[in-house]
Sequence to fold (364 residues):
Amino acid sequence: METFLYEAQPSRVIFGVGSLKEVSTEIKALGLKKAIVIATPEQESLAQEVAELLGSLCVGVHAAAIQHVPIEIVEKSLERMLELQVDGLVVVGGGSSIGLAKAIALKTSLPILAIPTTYAGSEMTPIWGMTENGIKKTGKDTVVKPKTVIYDANLTATLPTGLTVTSGMNAIAHCVEALYAENANPIISLLAEDGIRALAISLPKILDDPNDLDARSDAQYGCWLGGMALGSVGMAMHHKLCHTLGGSYNLPHAETHTVILPHVISYNASHAPEAVKAIARALGTDESDVAGSLFDLIKSLGVPTSLAEIGMKEEDLNQAAEIATENPYYNPRPIEKDLILELLGNAFSGVRPTQESYEISASK
Ligand code: NAD
Fold:
């Protein structure tokens, strides 16, 4: 076995349908007496329910979270935390709400208990993000990583099926890139493979019955593992491409990940044989067709499979390839701009990738 570094990132997880009722016990276990509940305005009534469960351990609800964590909201929130002498943050919601709690924790070191209601996985990472003057800064700090996480699939039953599938695919993307990360290690690879498996099995079941709480629990488990993968090892070309497409062309985050992932797997396959084996085992498919099999799965789940469908303009592909390749970064296969442009063209038109797609081009 090769040498590797593995760093455990502690968190306490309470998992299972109905586990929200443990929130008060868990806040006491953290030694907190004056918690506040953070959420988006859309999820204020859920935040009120959580506040009621907390009773006298809670000093109020702060339903002010919005996408991309604007600094102005963080500053106003900090004033409120000070005014109420809050000693801990309970956050219920998706990546945007957890993002606000993390930004507050970054400035105050207040401990976070997170109750995720989407599949984004932020609750498992030490990664924070904040937007100032239109630019989103991100960083890593263990102080923002939630101390306790409550996964209750009841709270995900209201997630629309389209978003369920695409944010599930986003979690699969974290797992895939963890398998061939520069600092990959066998522990995270085990989690990543099982994360792909759990999501590939549960997403079709959720599509059949969005209220199937067993399947929703399995998906939540897969996303937990995806979040751990994202927070533990470095990501590569797939995340860079999606970041470029989202940041420069305003394409929707989870859909972009969904469209791009099979093409990146095809591009990297020849340089990441162990990752390909793991993905094949997880998808229950042949090693020679993992990219195509994932593409077929996505298509069968009824979500977009082309960049054209999600708002990309063909004339921007060349510039996108340039932006995505201008700074060197780790990827198991060297980044070649011509091939990236070809990849983006295939993703634009929604071509089914094969394992050989970029091998033939490379040898031209
Ligand atoms: P989100 O938090 O932006 O939520 C989108 C909308 O869905 C909101 O209006 C929210 O109130 C609503 N919503 C949430 N849960 C719901 C439910 N169960 N039923 C119905 N509506 C619900 O979406 P997201 O995808 O969870 O988060 C995306 C953000 O998180 C992005 O900004 C991304 O960059 C960030 N993110 C950060 C990390 C990290 O490690 N820091 C990881 C993943 C994502």
Q: What stands out?
A: Residues 40, 42-43, 67-68, 93-97, 99, 117-118, 120-122, 125, 127, 129, 155-156, 158-159, 167, 253 surround nicotinamide-adenine-dinucleotide (CB under 6 Å). The beta strands are 12-15, 35-38, 58-62, 88-93, 112-116, 127-132, 135-140, 148-151. The radius of gyration is 20 Å.
